[in-house]
Amino acid sequence: QVQLVESGGGLVQAGGSLRLSCTASGRTFGTNDVGWYRQAPGKEREFVARISWSTVSTYYTDSVKGRFTNSRDNAKNTVYLQMNSLKPEDTAVYYCTVPVLNYWGQGTQVTVSS
Q: What is the structure's pLDDT at 56?
């Protein structure tokens, strides 16, 4: 069983930046893709980004393209989501996941004030 722990969330003003981290414990991510999802109050959880094991392939939802960057350090079992030019509509709980194994972290709150 792998545990995913997110960190790096917080309160930031619009236009600011945060870097989220997701670290796996118990097991490594292996060669699996790792994804980020978010859920805003009253809304369904939505896809944000995904990165392949090799880091060659990254995917982003349209609303974050050009602002968010997904990366990973396999030696540290950690995946990062660099979020720049944050907007109030980015406010949500952010979760990392290993989709193929249906592993989810507990989430980290990101709040962007206007």
A: 80
